[in-house]
Recover the amino acids of this structure.
């Protein structure tokens, strides 16, 4: 309960997000919901989401390298959660092997043409759940864990949601995929953080910056 209260600026809007998206999934047809979500496209949106979606790709691993110079603990938790979330997602993808929107619509609604963005390849398989969404929620939740500012925690939540929305906007995933992906990301990350929070690792509060400072001194 203490953990939830401390990071409530991320968790509370996330719970609301899960409830709202769950209602959308339950009360709407899969194809109709996707078309409605993906229909809000603009030229600026195409450019933005084409690149921003990669925040759920390799960007978190770049931050791992950067954070080694700030604090080992954050870099370690970020690395472990990213690898763990990725493993869970890959297992689920292969258990279900759901078709992605481009394949689903080609088979069930061949007359409907999805919005395509130049340079963005549309994948056909392993739609469920969204790996980019899971990685993004894991990434931003870890960042939220290391700030006491509520407005920053809330900002991190919205930045994670934007990655999830980008996956539907780009027609790489269905809404259910991003919902479950977010649950995997938040669930796995919360569990690992609670575990590491109880561990006494004094070395983890150091950084490569300290190492270089000592050598130069």
């Amino acid at each position: 309960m203490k953990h939830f209260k401390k990071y409530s600026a991320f968790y509370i809007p996330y719970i609301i997000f899960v409830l709202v998206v769950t209602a959308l999934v339950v009360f709407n047809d899969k194809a109709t919901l996707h078309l409605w979500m993906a229909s809000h496209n603009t030229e600026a949106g195409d450019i933005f989401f084409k690149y921003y979606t990669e925040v759920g790709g390799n960007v978190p691993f770049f931050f791992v390298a950067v954070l080694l110079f700030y604090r080992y603990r954050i870099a370690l938790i970020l690395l472990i959660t990213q690898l763990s979330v990725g493993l869970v997602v890959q297992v689920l993808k292969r258990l279900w092997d759901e078709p992605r929107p481009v394949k689903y619509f080609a088979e069930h609604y061949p007359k409907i043409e999805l919005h395509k963005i130049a340079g963005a390849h549309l994948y056909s398989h392993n739609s469920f759940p969204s790996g980019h969404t899971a990685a993004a929620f894991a990434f931003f939740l870890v960042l939220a864990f290391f700030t006491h500012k509520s407005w920053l925690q809330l900002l991190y939540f919205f930045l994670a949601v934007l990655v999830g929305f980008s996956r539907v906007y780009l027609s790489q995933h269905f809404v259910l995929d991003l919902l479950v992906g977010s649950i995997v990301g938040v669930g796995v990350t919360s569990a690992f953080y609670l575990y590491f929070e109880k561990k006494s690792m004094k070395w983890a509060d150091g950084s490569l910056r300290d190492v270089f400072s000592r050598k130069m001194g």
